[in-house]
Amino acid sequence: MVRLITHNLLACHAKGCTTNNFPLKLQDVVVEVREAEFNADFLRGFLPRIEWTALVNAAKELGDTSLPLEMPEMVDDEFLKNLHHVLLEIHVDEGAMVCPNCGHKYPIMNGIPNMLLAEHEIG
Amino acid sequence: MTISSYIFVFAQVHEEFRIPELLSVSELYNISLTFPGGDSTYADVSTPFMIFGLECEEHAHILARRCILVKSIHELYATGKTYDEIHEQNKASKHLWEKYIQDTSFKFKVEAYNHSIPQRRQKEVVVAFSYMGWLGKIDMKNPEVTLYCFEEYRDKRGSSASLRHRHEGDGDFIQVYFGRLVAEGTARHLVKTFDVKKRSYYGNTSMEAEISLLMANQTLASPGKLIYDPFVGTGSMAHTTAHFGAFVYGSDIDGRQIRGKDNTPGIMRAASQYGVSERIIDLCTFDLTKNPWRCGNLFDAILTDPPYGVRAGAKRLGRKNESWRPTEKFLANRLEGEPYVPPTKPYELSALATDLVLYARYALKPGGRLVFFLPTVTEEYEELDLQTMLCEGMEVVANSLQNFGSWGRRLITIRKKTSQSFPPPTFDASARESLENAAASHTPAHKDFREKYFSGFKRDTPETSQPVS
User: Fold this and answer.
1) Helices (H), B55-172
2) C-beta separation of A106 from B249 below 8 A
3) End-to-end distance of chain B based on CA atoms, in angstroms?
4) In B179, B227, B371, B442, which residue has its Cα 20 to 30 A from B379's Cα atom?
5) Does any domain span residue B21?
6) In this structure, are B243 and B388 located in the same domain?
7) How many percent of chain B have pLDDT more than 90?
8) According to the lineage, what is the superkingdom (chain A) (predicted)?
9) Same domain, B211 and B139
10) Which residues have CB under 8 Å from A16's CB, separation 6+?
C-alpha cells in the first residue's frame, strides 16, 4: 500500500506549510508490485486530478519510466496500461514521505502512512 | 414503453431502508421504477408485499441481484381481497400467461404471511386455478415457471397468541397476490457472507453486515468509482463497497483500529477473505479535521459511521484545555524511541455532522453522495434537525431510521447537487456559525448526543427533576 495514486493526492498539511508542500519525498522505501484490477473508465476519469510531473518523477524514483514526461493529448490503450501500473500496482510498504518544505516526516509502516500532525503543527 | 406490474416481496427488516435502497439501485442501473399512485411518499412499508411498475423483466433481475432487502420479484397476474377478485383479474391477465399453457413445466406454491395455511386448503387454492388449463408437466424440482399465491394476514401477535391454534383464522386474509416468479433475491445471502462473527478481523465498533451492505447500496457503489470512509475504523463498509466493485480509501485518527495486532493490517486481512483487497486503495492514519488531501472534487461517495461517543468517542487533534502547552521539561521527559502520540480532544456530534457535510461538498464530485449514520434521540428528533447541517449545494435524498427505542440512528444520504467548486472547510466554530441555512438557530436533537445517552435521555425539565413525594 501507499500506491502512487495516493502519493499523488497527499500534501504536507502542517500549520503554515502551504507552499512547496507537494509532492512529498519518498525516503528509504520498500517497494512491492502487486497486480490490480484494470478499469479504463476509472483511469480516464482520474486523469484530470493527477499532478502529472509529480507522478512521473515518483515513478522514475521507484524505477518505472513508462510514462511520458508530458501528459499525452491522445489517450490510447498502451498509455492507460502504463498509467494503471504506475498508479495502482506499485506499493510502498515501508519507508517515509518527507515534506520538501518543512521537513515533516510521515512514516509508512506495514503500508499505512501516518499522516497525523504533532501538537505544534496544528493551527 | 409499456410498463408491467410486479409483486416485490421484501424481508421484513429495516423497513425504512427499503424504498431508499430500491431508488438507489434503480438510479445506479438507470431503471425506471413506477410507484402505485405515482409517488414514493405513499408507499406502505409495513407489509412485505409491494407492487411496482418496471419497463422490462431484465430490470427485475437486476434489482433482485443487488437489493439486500428484496426476497423475490414476481410478474403480477392478480391481486385482491377475495379469491373471486383474484380469479376474475387472473382471467383478464390471460395474455400474460397463455404462452405457458402448451408445454411449460411448472409448479404452484401457496404461501401466507403472518399465518400458516393447512395443507388441505393449499390444495383447494391450487385446484381453483385449474381453469388456466396448463398442459405442461408439474415439476417440483426444476420447473420452468413457478406460480406463487400469497395470502397476507393481519399481525396476530399479542393477546391470545400462545393459546391460538396455528391455523386459526384461516382464510381471514386481508389481501391475496398471484403471479409468476421472475427472480429470487440473490443479494440477501451477502448478509451471511459479510457476517462480522465470521470475519477474520473486527472490533467492538464494527458495523453489522446487513446495514453495511445497505449503506454501500446508498453510495451507488460500482466498478470504477472512488469511495472514501474518513472514520474507517475496522473497515466494515470498506469491504461491502469494494465488494460492489468500487475502489475504496479509508482513514482514521486511530491507526490501531485499521491495523489490529498483526503485521498485515486487519482491514486488509478481512479484505483478502472477501477477495477485495486490491480494491482497498489505501488506508491512512490522520484526523479528518487536519487532513492531507491535496484537492477536492475527488470522490464519487463518502460513506462513514462517525463515532458518536457511545462505544467510541469522536476525537480530533488538539487539547481539551486549549491554553495549556507542553513545557520543555514535559517534552524532554518523553521516552526516547517511543512513538509520538499527539493529544486529542472530543469532537461534539452536531459539529462533526456539519463539518462532514461541508467537507463532502468540497471533496465529492458533482452528483456524488455522502452517506452516514446520525444517532438521534427518538423523542426529540425533528425534520428540522437535518437542516441544521446542510449547506448550499447539498440536498437530502434519503433518511432512514433504525430504531433502538429511546434512541435510534438515521442513515442519511445527501447528494452534492451543485457542480460549483467550494473551498475546503476550516473545521472550526466560525465556519459552522457562518452557515447561512434556514435552521441556523435550531438546536438539533443529536447535539451533545453522548451526554444525553449516558444520562438515559432524561429531559431535565422541572417536572421530571422534582422528587416524587
Assistant:
1) 57-66, 83-92, 94-97, 119-128
2) no
3) 72
4) B371
5) yes
6) yes
7) 66
8) Eukaryota
9) no
10) A102
d(CA B348, CA A110): 32
Judge if B441 and B300 occupy the same domain.
yes
- In this structure, what C-alpha cell is assigned to residue B220? 451507488
Q: What is the CATH number of the domain that holds B252?
A: 3.40.50.150
**What CATH class is the domain A4-113?**
mainly beta
Q: How many structural domains does chain B have?
A: 2
Is the CB of A70 inside 8 Å of chain B's CB atoms?
Answer: no
Query: A3 touching B, CB under 8 A?
Result: yes
For chain A, which residues make up each domain, given as ranges? 4-113
A69 half-sphere exposure, CB direction, 13 A CA radius? 0
Helix ranges, chain A (H): 4-7, 40-46, 52-61, 77-84
- Are A118 and B265 within 8 A, CB to CB? no
User: Which of B201, B285, B319, B325 should be substituted to probe chain A, the one whose Cβ sees the most A Cβ atoms within 10 Å?
Assistant: B285
If DSSP codes are grouped into helix, strand and coil, which group holds residue B97?
A: helix
**Cα–Cα distance for residue pair B280/B250, rounded to 1 Å:** 8
Is residue B204 within 8 Å of B307, Cβ to Cβ? Answer: no
Mean pLDDT, residues B338-361: 85
Q: Find, among A78, A79, B356, B386, the residue nearest to A69 by Cα.
A: A79
Same domain, B307 and B426: yes
Q: Do B319 and A119 touch (CB under 8 A)?
A: yes
Predicted-assembly ipTM surpassing the 0.85 threshold: yes
CATH code for the domain in which residue B81 is found: 3.30.2130.30
The answer to whether A3 contacts B281, with C-beta atoms less than 8 Å apart, is yes
pLDDT digits (tens, 9 = 90+) for B241-295: 999 999 999 999 988 889 988 889 999 999 999 999 999 999 999 999 999 999 9
Q: Considering Cα of B376, then B379, then B384, then B388, what sign does the dihedral take?
A: negative
